[in-house]
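Worked example 3 (structure in, sequence out).
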């Protein structure tokens, strides 16, 4: 399911780079299908060098044409980034996955004005070494297929579980 998806990673700090690196290492995502951003040019250049993918600081350009948008910013920045994406695109922004603890799926759905299904993802620190666990929470507009896609995205970091079913899988 991941192979044909174009993915934009918004925020390439510790977790954004870990997720992007995991996707590339899994072999399921081609470098040409992965694009990323950071707020500063310095961070963008660092991520670009480390991952070998396009990384800039223009979120609107990065998400144009993306099937999946991964918001990997700090919780305090998540709402502002989501609102920026909504106003810059004026259309369906694709599936969004939040990694923010305080930014709930509902909060992001509202920030995106209901234009995109949201799956909230909460990985733990061992994900940094591929031995973590990610809890996934389905937003009101997300389908089981969206959750399955999110599972695939976080699989390289360890395992995942759906918070509604409370079943942990690897
Ligand atoms: N780090 C961990 O071990 C860990 C473990 C589990 C969960 N988490 C969670 O993961 C989330 C992210 O944490 P993190 O450690 O990855 O944070 P981080 O290292 O501070 O990275 C945040 C990234 O967001 C970018 N950013 C901020 N505003 C932006 C904007 N408007 N547009 C584009 N990019 C923007 C920053 O760019 P600049 O660098 O240019 O400012 C930076 O690349 C948090 O919710 C945290 O709780 C982290």
């Amino acid at each position: 399911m991941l192979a044909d998806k174009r993915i934009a990673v918004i925020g390439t700090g510790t977790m954004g780079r870990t997720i992007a690196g995991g996707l590339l290492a899994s072999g399921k995502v081609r470098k040409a299908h992965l694009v990323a951003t950071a707020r500063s040019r310095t961070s963008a250049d660092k991520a670009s060098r480390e991952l070998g993918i396009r990384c800039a600081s223009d979120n609107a350009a990065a998400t144009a044409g993306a099937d999946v948008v991964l918001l990997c910013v700090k919780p305090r920045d998540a709402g502002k980034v989501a609102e920026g994406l909504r106003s810059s695109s004026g259309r369906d922004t694709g599936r969004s996955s939040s990694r923010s603890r305080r930014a709930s799926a509902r909060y992001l759905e509202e920030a995106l004005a209901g234009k995109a299904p949201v799956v909230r993802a909460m990985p733990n620190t061992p994900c940094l070494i591929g031995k973590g666990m990610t809890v996934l929470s389905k937003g009101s507009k997300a389908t089981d297929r969206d959750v399955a896609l999110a599972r695939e995205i976080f699989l390289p970091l360890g395992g995942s579980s759906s918070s509604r079913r409370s079943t942990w899988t690897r």
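Notes: Residues 75-89 form the longest helix (15 residues). Residues 48 and 144 are 32 Å apart (CA to CA).
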